[in-house]
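ok so i was messing around last nite and threw this chain in just to see what happens. nothing serious, just curious
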Amino acid sequence: MANGKNEPVFELIKSMSKSEKRNFKLFATRLQGNQDAKFLALFDAIDGIDDYDEERILKKAPVKKVQLSNMKAHLYKQILISLRLMNVQHYPDLQLREQVDFAKILYNKGLYRQSLKILDKAKQVALQLMQNTIALEIVEFEKMIESQYITRSISNRADILTNEAIGLNTSIQTANEFSNLALQLYGLYLKVGYARNSKDVAYVQTFFELNLPKYDADKLGFSEKMYLYQSYVWYYSIIQDFVSCYRYAQRWVDLFNENPQMKQSMISFYIKAYNYLLESLFYLRYYSKFWEVLTTLQSEVEDENDFFDDNAKMLVQSCILTHKVNLHFMEGSFTKGLALIPELKSFLSHHSERIDEHHVLVYYYKIACLYFGSGDNKNAIAYLNKIISTRDTDVRSDIQCFARILNLIANYEAGNDSNLEYQIKSVYRFLVKMDDLHKVQVEIINFLKNLGNIYATDIKREFKRLHDRLVPYENHPYEKRPFLYLDIISWLESKINNKPVQQIIQEKFLKVNR
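result:
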C-alpha cells in the first residue's frame, strides 16, 4: 500500500471541487470513444476512497498492476488539461499564454501577420497587467518573426522592439533582485525570529544594505515596488521597528488599491500585504486601526469572493483566523476566544498537506495562549508540548524557546510541582543551546527555581519584586522580545492582585481604548 501523501494524482483528485469533477467527466467523455476509457474508471476508483489503497483501486478499476503507473500519469495529465480549460477565463496569465500558443500555431502555418496581430494584442494586455515576463516572451517572439524579414514592417520596428526588450529586461531584473532579498529575509526570520541583540541587528542591517539594489523610486513598476515594500516589511519586522514595518505594509496594501487590476492576478501577495499590515498593528497595539483593517479585509473577501481560488481562500482564511485570535489577545477576551479553537483545529486538519511547519507552530502557540489566558492550563500545556516535541529546532526557534517558558509558567499555575526543577534545568539547557538566554528569561527561570524556598506569606511580595525587575525591559530594544510572545507583566500583576490574567489585560485595554 502506497502513502497517499506521495501520490500526486490522489492528492489532485481530493483537492477538486464537485464542479471541477463534473467538468472533468464531461471533458473526458467529449469523444464517444472515451466514455468507457480506463483512465475515467481509474478516476472514479480513486475518487471513491478516503485513503490511497492500491489494492482497492485495482479491484475497482479495469487496470492491471503493470499498467497502473502509466495510467495514473495519463489521468493526472488529463485532469490538469481539464482544470486549465475550466479556469483559463479566471486567470489573466493563462489567457495570455493561450494567446501566445495561438500565435505560435499561426506562425507555423505561415500566417505571420495574423500571428503578429495576436501577439500585439496580448502584449498590450500583459503590459497593462504588469505581466512583464510574459510581455518579454511576446517581444522576443515578435523579434524572431521580424528578424526573418518576412513582414516588411515599418522602418523603425526593430528599434521599437529592441527598446521594449531592454526596458522589460531591466524591470524583470530589478524585480528579481528585490524578490530575492525579500525571500532571503523571510528565510532568516523563519530560522531565528526577531533580532535578539545589537549584534543581530547589525548583521541584518548590513545584509539588507549590501543586497538592496540601487533604484529610482519614480521609475519602478508595480512588481518592483511590491517586492521592495515586502523587503522593507521583513527587514523592519526582524529588527522590531514595527512603526516602519507598519508604514511599508500600508504602502504595500495601497499599491494594490491604486492598481486594482492586479488584485486577481497577484491575489496571494495582496493577502500577504494585509497580513503583515495587521501583524504590525497588533505588535503596536493600535487597536482601532487593527479593527478597521481586519473589518475591511473581511468585507473585501465577501465582495470579491469570485476571484479567490483554492489557494487564495486558504491564505485569506489563515490570515483572518490568525488576526481574530490576535484581536482577543489585545482585548484580553481569552475565554471568548476559545470559540475559535474548533475552527482553528478544523483549518489545520483540512489543510494539513498544505500548511508548513512554521505556520503549524504559530497556530499551536496561539491556541496554547488562548487556553492559558482563559485559565485552562491543562490544554495550554498539551499544545505547548506539541511545539516542544518538534524535532527541527531550526524552525521558528524563537517560538520553541518561548513555548518552553510558557510551559513552565503553565505547569506552575496547574500545580505540577513534582518535576518543575527538572523542567527548569531542561529549559535552561535548551535556551543556552539556542543562544536565547537573555535577562527576561533568566529572571523568570531564577524566580521559578527559587519558588520552593519562598514562604506562602512572602509569595506575593516576590511576585512584586519580579514585576518591578521586568517592567524596565518592556520597551528595551532587544529585551522586549519576550513580551511580544507572552504578556508576562500582566501575568505577574494577576498574581499580585489575585485576579485572572485576562481580567488584568481587559482592564488595561479598556483604560487605553475608552
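not much to say yet. The first helix runs from residue 8 to 15.
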